[in-house]
Amino acid sequence: MKNTFLAGLFGTVVMLVSSGAALAQTATIAVAANFTKTIEVIGDEFTKETGHKLKFSFGPTGKLFAQIKNGAPFDAFFGADEKRALKTIEDGTGVNGTYFVYAQGQIALYSDKYPVKEQPLEVLKKAEFRHIAMANPRTAPYGERAQAYVKKMGLYDGLKSKIVNGESIAHAFQYVATGNAPIGFIALSQIVDPQSPIYKKGEYWVVPQADYAPIKQGAVVLKRGQDNTAVKAFMEFVQSPKAIEIIQSYGYSTP
Amino acid sequence: MIEIFGVEVSLDPIWLTLEVAAWTTFILLLLGTPLAWWMARMQHSSKIVLEALVALPLVLPPTVLGFYLLIIFNPNGYVTEFLRFFGFEGQLTFSKTGLIVGSVFYSLPFAVQPLMHAFEAVPQKLLDAAATMRANVLDRFFTIVLPLSQRGFLVAATLTFAHTVGEFGVVLMLGGNIPGETRMVSIDIFDHVESLEYDQAHVLSAMMLIFSLIVLMLVYGINRRFGVKVG
């Protein structure tokens, strides 16, 4: 009698747990540092709507890529460029046919000291500052585009000795936000975020998108997450009008 | 640029790292000696506060130290203002000087702790006896304390140097990755990994590994040799 009761209870528990798992799953997603705030907001909306839980791991795209290559337990990858997400497919860790561009980043020149809004190029040409912050062009797409832009404008030689590189765009942003660099090329998304420490402080100028190759940010489902319903639902959600609105409000354009 | 196993590696970060580590060791031995001596002879219970303060960099994540220094070293901050007063014209963040100052904090326990333990082992009786023979403080220090604490100094210097060479978090936070100025080996390795240049990362990492192993063997060797002699 007692045994049947226990068995019944056990059966019920197993059923509850397994059905719960089928309804709401958890996905672990690697996300490029620049998209941190945006994806957190999208993720909250997503969890509210679907019940699926998300865990985000933020970092420089290059580092996340290296971790994925070496077996990091991520279900999906949101890179800061097209290259790395596509390369995961090439390497066999990404799932073919799941790649899409989720946002296009914009570079802005920010300063709390110099009139970058009115005379951005004059400020860069005069270069009266001791340091200008940028993301590392070798490792961060935002840095690479910023460097290409100043080179194109013929300003690189004058600025070269003053450039300080953050490892990611988030890191370059810290140099500016803490006042250690009075001026810097950062992501527009880092300025327009109302929670940003420099929100409505200083001034900024959005670098014309025609002057640099678009920073298309690509996402991909990874092999580990291909059967995870939360991953599939989230990748669709990110491309929904609701998510697109959030993405644009954070200073990205969308394809 | 040199070639090691067919991989081109820039030596600048290595020289810079050795330079920063050498300065840090020199400064810490200079400043750490009186501090360690004072702490070793301290009877008051407030000694534990000092000991805890000195040991802080051992347990704090380097990013915490780096973050505070980034804020404190701000070119418009009090510290820089204070230094300006003495004619300092540079900036502490993004500079070699700043890295050395940061490293002095970061490696403090590695210099002070071995020195303190060495000083504690110097018998007070010897010093008292020397004092009765009119040896002044400096005499006593150079003729008794220094020879008896050789091992402490060697260990302090080696560990400080090695620990500074291996520094990453503080350099990352304060440095700004400027070639020849703040791009130390650990940052260079990080960059190579980030940009998928695994060959260079391998060569530099292997060099670091071998260097660290040699240094640690040196430390244990010193401990053993002098340990036997004293004990």
Automatic annotation (TrEMBL), chain A:
What is the superkingdom listed in this entry's lineage?
A: Bacteria
**Where are the bilayer-spanning segments?**
none
This protein's UniProt keywords? Metal-binding, Signal
Please list which residues make up the signal peptide.
Answer: 1-24
Presence of keyword Signal: yes
Q: Name one Pfam family in it.
A: SBP_bac_11
Task: Quote the InterPro entries the UniProt record gives.
Answer: AvModA-like_subst-bd, ModA, ModA/WtpA
Q: Is Signal among the key words of this record?
A: yes
The family annotation for this protein states: Belongs to the bacterial solute-binding protein ModA family.
NCBIfam families in alphabetical order: modA
Q: What is the protein's given name?
A: Molybdate ABC transporter substrate-binding protein
Organism listed in the record:
Thiomicrorhabdus marina
Query: Lineage from the top down?
Result: Bacteria, Pseudomonadati, Pseudomonadota, Gammaproteobacteria, Thiotrichales
Automatic annotation (TrEMBL), chain B:
Question: Which InterPro entries does the entry mention?
Answer: MetI-like (IPR000515), MetI-like_sf (IPR035906), ModB_ABC (IPR011867)
Q: How does it sit in the membrane?
A: Multi-pass membrane protein
What does this protein do, in the record's words?
A: Part of the binding-protein-dependent transport system for molybdenum; probably responsible for the translocation of the substrate across the membrane.
Q: Which UniProt keywords apply?
A: Cell inner membrane, Cell membrane, Membrane, Molybdenum, Transmembrane, Transmembrane helix, Transport
The regions listed as transmembrane in this protein's record are 20-40, 52-73, 93-112, 153-174, 201-222
Q: Which residues form a coiled coil?
A: none
Q: Which CDD domains match?
A: TM_PBP2
ABC transmembrane type-1 domain segment(s): 14-219
Family per UniProt?
A: Belongs to the binding-protein-dependent transport system permease family. CysTW subfamily.
Upper lineage is: Bacteria, Pseudomonadati, Pseudomonadota, Gammaproteobacteria, Thiotrichales
Recorded source organism is Thiomicrorhabdus marina
**The protein's name in its UniProt record:** Molybdenum transport system permease
Per UniProt, subcellular location reads as: Cell inner membrane; Cell membrane
Q: One of this protein's Pfam families, by short name?
A: BPD_transp_1
**PROSITE patterns (alphabetical):** ABC_TM1
Q: Which NCBIfam families is this protein grouped with?
A: modB_ABC
